[in-house]
Protein backbone atom coordinates (compact mmCIF):
# COMPACT_ATOMS: atom_id res chain seq x y z
CA UNK A 1 0.00 0.00 0.00
CA UNK A 2 1.63 3.20 -1.20
CA UNK A 3 -0.60 5.55 0.82
CA UNK A 4 -2.45 4.82 4.06
CA UNK A 5 -5.99 6.23 3.97
CA UNK A 6 -6.67 8.46 6.98
CA UNK A 7 -9.45 10.98 7.50
CA UNK A 8 -8.13 14.37 8.52
CA UNK A 9 -10.00 16.55 11.00
CA UNK A 10 -9.30 20.07 9.74
CA UNK A 11 -11.99 21.95 11.65
CA UNK A 12 -10.59 25.36 12.59
CA UNK A 13 -7.08 24.44 11.41
CA UNK A 14 -5.11 26.62 8.99
CA UNK A 15 -4.32 25.26 5.54
CA UNK A 16 -1.97 26.92 3.04
CA UNK A 17 -2.88 26.91 -0.63
CA UNK A 18 -0.23 28.24 -3.01
CA UNK A 19 -1.88 29.36 -6.25
CA UNK A 20 -4.92 31.44 -7.14
CA UNK A 21 -6.36 29.78 -10.25
CA UNK A 22 -8.98 27.18 -11.11
CA UNK A 23 -7.18 24.20 -9.55
CA UNK A 24 -6.45 26.08 -6.36
CA UNK A 25 -10.16 26.93 -6.23
CA UNK A 26 -11.20 23.28 -6.56
CA UNK A 27 -8.92 22.11 -3.75
CA UNK A 28 -9.86 25.09 -1.59
CA UNK A 29 -13.54 24.17 -1.87
CA UNK A 30 -12.89 20.74 -0.37
CA UNK A 31 -10.73 22.20 2.34
CA UNK A 32 -13.32 24.81 3.23
CA UNK A 33 -16.04 22.11 3.26
CA UNK A 34 -13.99 20.33 5.91
CA UNK A 35 -14.15 23.46 8.06
CA UNK A 36 -10.53 24.60 7.69
CA UNK A 37 -9.33 28.21 7.57
CA UNK A 38 -7.72 29.04 4.21
CA UNK A 39 -4.51 30.93 3.67
CA UNK A 40 -4.06 31.49 -0.06
CA UNK A 41 -0.86 32.92 -1.49
CA UNK A 42 -0.67 34.07 -5.13
CA UNK A 43 -0.02 37.30 -7.05
CA UNK A 44 -3.54 36.94 -8.51
CA UNK A 45 -6.56 35.35 -6.86
CA UNK A 46 -9.87 34.78 -8.71
CA UNK A 47 -13.09 36.29 -7.35
CA UNK A 48 -14.74 33.01 -6.47
CA UNK A 49 -11.70 31.90 -4.53
CA UNK A 50 -11.60 35.24 -2.70
CA UNK A 51 -15.20 34.76 -1.58
CA UNK A 52 -14.41 31.26 -0.40
CA UNK A 53 -11.42 32.50 1.60
CA UNK A 54 -13.61 35.12 3.29
CA UNK A 55 -16.26 32.54 4.12
CA UNK A 56 -13.66 30.27 5.72
CA UNK A 57 -12.48 33.20 7.88
CA UNK A 58 -9.11 32.98 6.17
CA UNK A 59 -6.60 35.34 4.56
CA UNK A 60 -5.43 36.12 1.03
CA UNK A 61 -1.83 37.11 0.45
CA UNK A 62 -1.36 38.81 -2.92
CA UNK A 63 2.29 38.16 -3.72
CA UNK A 64 4.70 35.34 -4.54
CA UNK A 65 5.25 32.46 -2.09
CA UNK A 66 7.83 32.63 0.70
CA UNK A 67 8.81 29.88 3.09
CA UNK A 68 7.37 31.70 6.12
CA UNK A 69 3.86 31.29 4.60
CA UNK A 70 3.98 27.78 6.04
CA UNK A 71 3.97 29.10 9.60
CA UNK A 72 1.07 27.74 11.61
CA UNK A 73 -0.32 25.59 8.80
CA UNK A 74 -1.19 21.89 9.27
CA UNK A 75 -1.52 21.05 5.58
CA UNK A 76 0.04 22.53 2.46
CA UNK A 77 -1.34 22.47 -1.09
CA UNK A 78 0.74 23.56 -4.08
CA UNK A 79 -1.60 24.29 -6.96
CA UNK A 80 0.35 26.52 -9.35
CA UNK A 81 1.40 25.77 -12.93
CA UNK A 82 5.01 26.66 -12.04
CA UNK A 83 6.72 23.28 -11.56
CA UNK A 84 9.92 24.52 -9.83
CA UNK A 85 7.76 26.55 -7.42
CA UNK A 86 5.58 23.53 -6.65
CA UNK A 87 8.74 21.48 -6.01
CA UNK A 88 10.06 24.21 -3.71
CA UNK A 89 6.81 24.28 -1.68
CA UNK A 90 6.92 20.50 -1.40
CA UNK A 91 10.54 20.51 -0.21
CA UNK A 92 9.88 23.27 2.36
CA UNK A 93 6.85 21.45 3.76
CA UNK A 94 8.67 18.13 3.99
CA UNK A 95 11.57 19.87 5.69
CA UNK A 96 9.14 20.97 8.40
CA UNK A 97 7.36 17.62 8.51
CA UNK A 98 4.01 19.13 7.42
CA UNK A 99 1.84 17.06 5.06
CA UNK A 100 1.92 18.40 1.50
CA UNK A 101 -0.04 17.83 -1.68
CA UNK A 102 1.15 18.98 -5.08
CA UNK A 103 -1.56 18.87 -7.68
CA UNK A 104 -0.83 16.37 -10.48
CA UNK A 105 2.62 15.44 -9.14
CA UNK A 106 2.29 12.33 -6.94
CA UNK A 107 6.06 12.07 -6.43
CA UNK A 108 6.07 15.48 -4.69
CA UNK A 109 3.19 14.56 -2.39
CA UNK A 110 3.19 13.17 1.11
CA UNK A 111 -0.64 13.15 1.03
CA UNK A 112 -3.01 12.81 -1.92
CA UNK A 113 -6.67 13.64 -2.46
CA UNK A 114 -8.93 10.65 -3.05
CA UNK A 115 -12.08 10.68 -5.17
CA UNK A 116 -14.85 11.26 -2.65
CA UNK A 117 -18.42 10.05 -2.26
CA UNK A 118 -19.85 12.40 0.34
CA UNK A 119 -22.82 11.06 2.28
CA UNK A 120 -21.78 12.92 5.40
CA UNK A 121 -21.24 11.78 8.03
CA UNK A 122 -20.53 8.74 5.87
CA UNK A 123 -17.64 9.47 3.51
CA UNK A 124 -16.12 7.05 1.02
CA UNK A 125 -12.70 7.77 -0.39
CA UNK A 126 -11.20 6.02 -3.42
CA UNK A 127 -7.59 6.30 -4.43
CA UNK A 128 -5.32 4.87 -7.09
CA UNK A 129 -2.28 6.19 -5.28
CA UNK A 130 -2.08 9.00 -7.84
CA UNK A 131 -1.38 6.56 -10.71
CA UNK A 132 -4.80 6.59 -12.35
CA UNK A 133 -7.05 9.31 -10.93
CA UNK A 134 -9.52 8.83 -13.80
CA UNK A 135 -9.99 5.20 -12.76
CA UNK A 136 -10.60 6.25 -9.17
CA UNK A 137 -13.20 8.74 -10.40
CA UNK A 138 -14.98 6.08 -12.46
CA UNK A 139 -15.14 3.81 -9.43
CA UNK A 140 -16.49 6.70 -7.43
CA UNK A 141 -19.23 7.20 -10.03
CA UNK A 142 -20.25 3.56 -9.67
CA UNK A 143 -20.39 3.87 -5.90
CA UNK A 144 -22.47 7.04 -6.27
CA UNK A 145 -25.11 5.00 -8.07
CA UNK A 146 -25.17 2.18 -5.48
CA UNK A 147 -25.49 4.30 -2.40
CA UNK A 148 -28.55 6.52 -2.22
CA UNK A 149 -27.92 10.20 -1.46
CA UNK A 150 -29.86 9.91 1.80
CA UNK A 151 -27.60 7.16 3.11
CA UNK A 152 -25.79 9.60 5.34
CA UNK A 153 -29.05 10.07 7.25
CA UNK A 154 -28.72 6.47 8.42
CA UNK A 155 -25.43 7.32 10.03
CA UNK A 156 -27.10 10.38 11.58
CA UNK A 157 -29.85 8.15 12.98
CA UNK A 158 -27.27 5.79 14.46
CA UNK A 159 -25.39 8.72 16.00
CA UNK A 160 -28.53 9.93 17.79
CA UNK A 161 -29.12 6.51 19.40
CA UNK A 162 -25.54 5.39 19.90
CA UNK A 163 -25.38 6.06 23.61
CA UNK A 164 -28.68 4.43 24.39
CA UNK A 165 -27.73 1.31 22.46
CA UNK A 166 -24.34 1.20 24.11
CA UNK A 167 -26.01 1.35 27.50
CA UNK A 168 -28.35 -1.45 26.51
CA UNK A 169 -25.67 -3.80 25.17
CA UNK A 170 -22.30 -3.46 26.89
CA UNK A 171 -21.18 -6.40 24.75
CA UNK A 172 -19.72 -5.42 21.36
CA UNK A 173 -21.05 -8.48 19.54
CA UNK A 174 -24.61 -7.88 20.68
CA UNK A 175 -24.31 -4.27 19.67
CA UNK A 176 -23.07 -5.20 16.25
CA UNK A 177 -25.95 -7.64 15.73
CA UNK A 178 -28.42 -4.96 16.82
CA UNK A 179 -27.12 -2.39 14.35
CA UNK A 180 -26.92 -4.93 11.53
CA UNK A 181 -30.61 -5.60 11.98
CA UNK A 182 -31.38 -1.90 12.04
CA UNK A 183 -29.39 -1.09 8.92
CA UNK A 184 -30.82 -3.96 6.89
CA UNK A 185 -34.43 -3.90 7.94
CA UNK A 186 -37.58 -1.78 7.96
CA UNK A 187 -36.06 0.94 10.16
CA UNK A 188 -33.43 1.76 7.53
CA UNK A 189 -36.11 1.50 4.83
CA UNK A 190 -38.17 4.17 6.57
CA UNK A 191 -35.18 6.47 6.93
CA UNK A 192 -34.13 6.04 3.29
CA UNK A 193 -37.70 6.61 2.14
CA UNK A 194 -37.60 10.06 3.77
CA UNK A 195 -39.69 9.10 6.84
CA UNK A 196 -37.10 9.99 9.48
CA UNK A 197 -39.58 10.50 12.33
CA UNK A 198 -41.10 7.06 11.77
CA UNK A 199 -37.62 5.50 11.63
CA UNK A 200 -36.80 7.09 15.00
CA UNK A 201 -40.06 5.88 16.48
CA UNK A 202 -39.40 2.30 15.34
CA UNK A 203 -35.82 2.39 16.56
CA UNK A 204 -36.91 3.65 19.98
CA UNK A 205 -39.52 0.88 20.14
CA UNK A 206 -36.85 -1.68 19.27
CA UNK A 207 -34.62 -0.35 22.04
CA UNK A 208 -37.53 -0.36 24.51
CA UNK A 209 -38.19 -3.98 23.60
CA UNK A 210 -41.71 -3.40 22.32
CA UNK A 211 -41.06 -3.45 18.60
CA UNK A 212 -44.16 -4.38 16.63
CA UNK A 213 -44.19 -7.86 15.09
CA UNK A 214 -42.24 -7.67 11.86
CA UNK A 215 -44.60 -6.35 9.22
CA UNK A 216 -43.59 -6.35 5.64
CA UNK A 217 -43.71 -3.46 3.29
CA UNK A 218 -44.86 -2.83 -0.25
CA UNK A 219 -42.86 -0.90 -2.79
CA UNK A 220 -44.99 0.31 -5.65
CA UNK A 221 -42.34 0.70 -8.31
CA UNK A 222 -42.54 2.25 -11.76
CA UNK A 223 -40.43 0.12 -14.08
CA UNK A 224 -40.44 2.59 -16.96
CA UNK A 225 -41.47 1.89 -20.54
CA UNK A 226 -39.15 -1.02 -21.34
CA UNK A 227 -35.49 -0.10 -21.61
CA UNK A 228 -33.95 -1.35 -18.32
CA UNK A 229 -31.50 1.55 -18.46
CA UNK A 230 -34.40 3.88 -17.68
CA UNK A 231 -35.00 2.48 -14.20
CA UNK A 232 -34.29 4.82 -11.30
CA UNK A 233 -31.59 4.03 -8.75
CA UNK A 234 -34.23 3.61 -6.09
CA UNK A 235 -36.28 1.21 -8.21
CA UNK A 236 -33.24 -0.98 -8.74
CA UNK A 237 -32.25 -0.92 -5.08
CA UNK A 238 -35.72 -1.97 -3.90
CA UNK A 239 -36.00 -4.62 -6.62
CA UNK A 240 -32.80 -6.12 -5.32
CA UNK A 241 -33.97 -6.34 -1.73
CA UNK A 242 -37.55 -7.54 -2.17
CA UNK A 243 -38.65 -11.07 -1.22
CA UNK A 244 -41.55 -11.17 -3.69
CA UNK A 245 -42.20 -9.43 -6.99
CA UNK A 246 -45.69 -8.98 -8.42
CA UNK A 247 -45.45 -7.83 -12.01
CA UNK A 248 -47.58 -6.85 -14.98
CA UNK A 249 -47.58 -7.88 -18.58
CA UNK A 250 -45.99 -4.54 -19.46
CA UNK A 251 -42.83 -5.19 -17.44
CA UNK A 252 -40.05 -6.23 -19.82
CA UNK A 253 -38.28 -9.56 -19.07
CA UNK A 254 -34.93 -7.75 -19.03
CA UNK A 255 -36.22 -5.63 -16.15
CA UNK A 256 -37.52 -8.63 -14.23
CA UNK A 257 -34.05 -10.12 -14.53
CA UNK A 258 -32.75 -7.29 -12.36
CA UNK A 259 -34.81 -8.39 -9.35
CA UNK A 260 -33.14 -10.35 -6.58
CA UNK A 261 -32.31 -13.81 -7.92
CA UNK A 262 -34.11 -15.75 -5.22
CA UNK A 263 -37.20 -13.51 -5.03
CA UNK A 264 -40.56 -15.17 -5.78
CA UNK A 265 -42.02 -13.82 -9.00
CA UNK A 266 -45.78 -13.63 -9.33
CA UNK A 267 -47.40 -12.69 -12.63
CA UNK A 268 -50.57 -10.68 -12.15
CA UNK A 269 -50.63 -9.22 -15.63
CA UNK A 270 -53.58 -7.75 -17.33
CA UNK A 271 -54.53 -7.99 -20.93
CA UNK A 272 -57.30 -5.52 -21.53
CA UNK A 273 -60.56 -7.21 -20.54
CA UNK A 274 -58.85 -10.52 -19.82
CA UNK A 275 -57.37 -9.83 -16.39
CA UNK A 276 -54.98 -12.52 -15.19
CA UNK A 277 -56.02 -11.55 -11.67
CA UNK A 278 -58.90 -9.23 -10.85
CA UNK A 279 -57.74 -5.95 -9.31
CA UNK A 280 -59.25 -6.62 -5.88
CA UNK A 281 -57.40 -9.92 -5.68
CA UNK A 282 -54.11 -8.19 -6.51
CA UNK A 283 -54.83 -5.67 -3.77
CA UNK A 284 -55.61 -8.47 -1.31
CA UNK A 285 -52.49 -10.41 -2.25
CA UNK A 286 -50.32 -7.36 -1.53
CA UNK A 287 -51.92 -7.01 1.89
CA UNK A 288 -51.53 -10.73 2.68
CA UNK A 289 -47.87 -10.91 1.67
CA UNK A 290 -46.96 -7.81 3.65
CA UNK A 291 -48.77 -9.21 6.70
CA UNK A 292 -46.56 -12.29 6.45
CA UNK A 293 -43.60 -9.92 6.91
CA UNK A 294 -42.52 -9.97 3.27
CA UNK A 295 -40.97 -7.09 1.41
CA UNK A 296 -43.01 -6.93 -1.75
CA UNK A 297 -42.23 -5.09 -4.97
CA UNK A 298 -45.29 -4.29 -7.01
CA UNK A 299 -43.65 -3.64 -10.36
CA UNK A 300 -45.64 -1.63 -12.89
CA UNK A 301 -44.92 -0.55 -16.43
CA UNK A 302 -44.14 3.14 -16.81
CA UNK A 303 -45.22 5.25 -13.85
CA UNK A 304 -47.51 3.67 -11.25
CA UNK A 305 -49.65 6.81 -10.94
CA UNK A 306 -50.32 7.24 -14.65
CA UNK A 307 -53.05 4.88 -15.88
CA UNK A 308 -51.52 2.30 -13.57
CA UNK A 309 -54.16 1.80 -10.87
CA UNK A 310 -51.32 2.44 -8.43
CA UNK A 311 -53.62 4.62 -6.38
CA UNK A 312 -56.17 1.84 -5.87
CA UNK A 313 -53.53 -0.62 -4.73
CA UNK A 314 -52.02 1.60 -2.09
CA UNK A 315 -55.42 2.77 -0.84
CA UNK A 316 -55.98 -0.81 0.23
CA UNK A 317 -52.56 -0.94 1.89
CA UNK A 318 -53.19 2.32 3.70
CA UNK A 319 -56.53 0.98 4.95
CA UNK A 320 -54.68 -1.98 6.52
CA UNK A 321 -51.90 0.19 7.99
CA UNK A 322 -49.24 -1.47 5.86
CA UNK A 323 -46.17 0.64 5.15
CA UNK A 324 -45.55 1.38 1.51
CA UNK A 325 -43.55 3.67 -0.70
CA UNK A 326 -44.05 4.75 -4.28
CA UNK A 327 -41.22 5.00 -6.76
CA UNK A 328 -42.04 7.02 -9.87
CA UNK A 329 -41.07 5.66 -13.25
CA UNK A 330 -40.68 7.14 -16.69
CA UNK A 331 -44.14 7.03 -18.16
CA UNK A 332 -44.71 5.70 -21.68
CA UNK A 333 -45.40 9.22 -22.99
CA UNK A 334 -41.99 10.54 -21.90
CA UNK A 335 -40.09 7.41 -22.86
CA UNK A 336 -41.70 6.86 -26.26
CA UNK A 337 -41.60 10.53 -27.20
CA UNK A 338 -37.91 10.79 -26.36
CA UNK A 339 -36.96 7.61 -28.21
CA UNK A 340 -39.08 8.56 -31.23
CA UNK A 341 -37.62 12.08 -31.48
CA UNK A 342 -40.95 13.82 -30.80
CA UNK A 343 -40.75 16.59 -28.17
CA UNK A 344 -44.16 16.67 -26.46
CA UNK A 345 -44.09 20.45 -26.18
CA UNK A 346 -42.32 22.97 -28.38
CA UNK A 347 -42.47 26.75 -28.40
CA UNK A 348 -43.57 26.84 -32.04
CA UNK A 349 -45.99 23.90 -32.03
CA UNK A 350 -47.50 22.97 -28.69
CA UNK A 351 -47.94 24.88 -25.46
CA UNK A 352 -49.49 22.00 -23.57
CA UNK A 353 -49.67 18.23 -23.57
CA UNK A 354 -52.46 15.99 -22.41
CA UNK A 355 -52.27 12.31 -21.41
CA UNK A 356 -55.55 10.65 -22.36
CA UNK A 357 -56.89 7.13 -21.92
CA UNK A 358 -58.12 5.62 -25.15
CA UNK A 359 -59.66 2.68 -23.34
CA UNK A 360 -63.17 1.98 -24.56
CA UNK A 361 -66.01 1.69 -22.10
CA UNK A 362 -68.98 -0.14 -23.59
CA UNK A 363 -67.50 0.14 -27.05
CA UNK A 364 -67.24 3.94 -27.04
CA UNK A 365 -64.66 6.40 -25.76
CA UNK A 366 -66.40 8.84 -23.54
CA UNK A 367 -63.95 11.73 -23.72
CA UNK A 368 -64.30 15.51 -23.51
CA UNK A 369 -63.67 15.87 -27.27
CA UNK A 370 -64.20 19.63 -27.35
CA UNK A 371 -61.24 20.08 -25.00
CA UNK A 372 -58.97 17.99 -27.21
CA UNK A 373 -59.12 19.84 -30.50
CA UNK A 374 -56.93 22.89 -29.89
CA UNK A 375 -54.16 22.79 -32.53
CA UNK A 376 -51.52 23.91 -30.01
CA UNK A 377 -52.13 20.96 -27.70
CA UNK A 378 -50.31 17.63 -28.04
CA UNK A 379 -52.42 14.59 -27.22
CA UNK A 380 -50.96 11.33 -26.01
CA UNK A 381 -53.31 8.36 -26.00
CA UNK A 382 -52.54 5.39 -23.78
CA UNK A 383 -54.38 2.12 -24.56
CA UNK A 384 -55.62 3.75 -27.74
CA UNK A 385 -55.08 1.06 -30.34
CA UNK A 386 -58.48 -0.67 -30.30
CA UNK A 387 -60.41 2.58 -30.15
CA UNK A 388 -58.21 4.36 -32.68
CA UNK A 389 -60.77 4.64 -35.53
CA UNK A 390 -63.28 6.18 -33.12
CA UNK A 391 -60.68 8.49 -31.57
CA UNK A 392 -59.53 9.84 -34.96
CA UNK A 393 -63.11 10.20 -36.16
CA UNK A 394 -64.31 12.08 -33.10
CA UNK A 395 -61.32 14.44 -33.10
CA UNK A 396 -61.94 15.33 -36.75
CA UNK A 397 -65.69 15.66 -36.16
CA UNK A 398 -65.10 18.05 -33.27
CA UNK A 399 -62.84 20.27 -35.33
CA UNK A 400 -59.26 19.02 -35.23
CA UNK A 401 -57.89 19.07 -38.78
CA UNK A 402 -57.75 15.72 -40.59
CA UNK A 403 -54.20 16.66 -41.63
CA UNK A 404 -53.00 16.86 -38.03
CA UNK A 405 -49.76 14.85 -37.85
CA UNK A 406 -49.91 11.74 -35.67
CA UNK A 407 -47.61 8.89 -34.68
CA UNK A 408 -47.89 5.32 -33.49
CA UNK A 409 -45.07 4.05 -31.30
CA UNK A 410 -45.05 0.34 -30.66
CA UNK A 411 -42.91 -1.11 -27.83
CA UNK A 412 -41.25 2.25 -27.39
CA UNK A 413 -37.71 2.50 -25.93
CA UNK A 414 -37.01 -1.19 -26.57
CA UNK A 415 -34.98 -2.78 -29.37
CA UNK A 416 -38.33 -3.75 -30.89
CA UNK A 417 -39.53 -0.16 -31.13
CA UNK A 418 -41.43 0.63 -34.33
CA UNK A 419 -42.70 4.09 -35.22
CA UNK A 420 -45.24 4.98 -37.89
CA UNK A 421 -46.26 8.51 -38.71
CA UNK A 422 -49.23 9.80 -40.70
CA UNK A 423 -52.24 12.01 -40.04
CA UNK A 424 -55.48 11.71 -38.12
CA UNK A 425 -57.07 10.72 -41.45
CA UNK A 426 -54.89 7.69 -42.18
CA UNK A 427 -53.66 6.52 -38.77
CA UNK A 428 -56.13 3.59 -38.40
CA UNK A 429 -55.13 2.43 -41.86
CA UNK A 430 -51.45 2.34 -40.80
CA UNK A 431 -52.35 0.07 -37.91
CA UNK A 432 -53.89 -2.47 -40.26
CA UNK A 433 -51.17 -2.18 -42.90
CA UNK A 434 -48.27 -2.74 -40.52
CA UNK A 435 -50.00 -5.05 -38.07
CA UNK A 436 -49.27 -2.68 -35.21
CA UNK A 437 -49.97 -4.30 -31.85
CA UNK A 438 -49.95 -3.47 -28.15
CA UNK A 439 -48.32 -1.86 -26.32
CA UNK A 440 -48.61 1.12 -28.60
CA UNK A 441 -48.77 4.78 -27.78
CA UNK A 442 -50.48 7.36 -29.99
CA UNK A 443 -49.20 10.92 -30.24
CA UNK A 444 -51.30 13.55 -32.04
CA UNK A 445 -50.13 17.07 -32.87
CA UNK A 446 -47.82 19.31 -34.88
CA UNK A 447 -44.83 18.17 -32.81
CA UNK A 448 -44.87 14.84 -34.65
CA UNK A 449 -43.33 16.59 -37.68
CA UNK A 450 -40.16 17.26 -35.65
CA UNK A 451 -39.36 13.57 -35.79
CA UNK A 452 -38.04 14.03 -39.34
CA UNK A 453 -35.17 16.04 -37.89
CA UNK A 454 -34.86 14.60 -34.41
CA UNK A 455 -35.18 10.82 -34.71
CA UNK A 456 -32.06 9.24 -33.20
CA UNK A 457 -32.97 5.83 -31.82
CA UNK A 458 -32.97 2.98 -34.32
CA UNK A 459 -35.06 0.28 -32.60
CA UNK A 460 -36.38 -2.28 -35.07
CA UNK A 461 -35.97 0.20 -37.98
CA UNK A 462 -39.40 -0.65 -39.41
CA UNK A 463 -40.62 2.92 -39.42
CA UNK A 464 -42.39 5.01 -42.05
N1 LIG B 1 -48.46 3.17 -16.15
C1 LIG B 1 -48.09 3.06 -17.55
C2 LIG B 1 -49.27 3.03 -18.48
C3 LIG B 1 -50.15 1.83 -18.33
S1 LIG B 1 -51.48 1.84 -19.48
C4 LIG B 1 -47.17 4.22 -17.91
O1 LIG B 1 -47.02 5.16 -17.11
O2 LIG B 1 -46.57 4.18 -18.98
C5 LIG B 1 -50.84 0.84 -20.76
C6 LIG B 1 -50.59 1.62 -22.02
O3 LIG B 1 -49.38 2.32 -21.92
C7 LIG B 1 -50.42 0.78 -23.26
O4 LIG B 1 -51.67 0.42 -23.80
C8 LIG B 1 -49.68 1.71 -24.18
O5 LIG B 1 -50.53 2.64 -24.75
C9 LIG B 1 -48.79 2.46 -23.20
N2 LIG B 1 -47.43 1.90 -23.15
C10 LIG B 1 -46.80 1.43 -22.08
N3 LIG B 1 -45.54 1.06 -22.37
C11 LIG B 1 -45.38 1.31 -23.68
C12 LIG B 1 -44.29 1.14 -24.60
N4 LIG B 1 -43.11 0.66 -24.21
N5 LIG B 1 -44.49 1.51 -25.88
C13 LIG B 1 -45.66 2.02 -26.27
N6 LIG B 1 -46.70 2.19 -25.46
C14 LIG B 1 -46.58 1.84 -24.18
Percent strand: 15-25%
Alpha carbon gyration radius: 30 Å
Per DSSP, the total helix count is 16
Instruction: Provide the CATH topology of the largest domain.
Output: Methyltransferase, Cobalt-precorrin-4 Transmethylase, Domain 2
Distance between the termini: 60 Å
Structural class call reads: alpha/beta
Q: Tell me what the CATH architecture of the largest domain is.
A: 2-Layer Sandwich
Helix content: 25-40%
Q: CATH superfamily membership of the largest domain, which one?
A: Tetrapyrrole methylase, C-terminal domain
Strand order of the largest sheet: 3-2-1-4-5
Q: Low-confidence parts, pLDDT < 50 over ≥5 residues?
A: none
- Bound ligands: S-adenosyl-L-homocysteine
Estimate the global geometry from the Cα principal axes: globular
The biggest sheet amounts to: 5 strands, parallel
Residue-averaged pLDDT, rounded?
Answer: 92
CATH class of the largest domain: Alpha Beta
Function: Then it catalyzes the NAD-dependent ring dehydrogenation of precorrin-2 to yield sirohydrochlorin. Finally, it catalyzes the ferrochelation of sirohydrochlorin to yield siroheme.
Binding site for S-adenosyl-L-methionine: 225, 301-303, 306, 331-332, 383, 412
Domain Siroheme synthase central: 119-144
Protein name: Siroheme synthase
Word description of this protein:
This protein has helices spanning 22-33, 47-55, 83-96, 133-146, 151-168, 172-184, 186-192, 196-208, 233-239, 253-256, 279-291, 310-319, 332-340, 388-397, 427-433, 451-454, and strands spanning 14-18, 37-41, 59-61, 75-78, 100-102, 115-119, 122-126, 217-222, 244-247, 264-267, 270-271, 274-275, 295-300, 324-327, 352-357, 377-382, 405-410, 418-423, 440-444. By secondary structure, it is α/β, with parallel strands linked by helices. The chain folds into 4 domains: 14-113, Rossmann fold (3-Layer(aba) Sandwich), CATH 3.40.50; 150-208; 217-327, Cobalt-precorrin-4 Transmethylase, domain 1, CATH 3.40.1010; 333-463, 2-Layer Sandwich (Methyltransferase, Cobalt-precorrin-4 Transmethylase, Domain 2), CATH 3.30.950.10. The protein has a 5-stranded parallel beta sheet with strand order 3-2-1-4-5, sandwiched between helices. It has a 5-stranded parallel beta sheet with strand order 10-9-13-8-14, sandwiched between helices. Helix 5 (151-168) runs antiparallel to helix 6 (172-184), helix 7 (186-192) packs antiparallel against helix 8 (196-208) and helix 11 packs across helix 12. The chain is globular. Residues 225-226, 250, 300-303, 306-308, 331-332, 336, 382-383, 409, 411-413, 438-441 line the site of S-adenosyl-L-homocysteine (SAH). S-adenosyl-L-homocysteine binds at residues 225-226, 250, 300-303, 306-308, 331-332, 336, 382-383, 409, 411-413, 438-441.
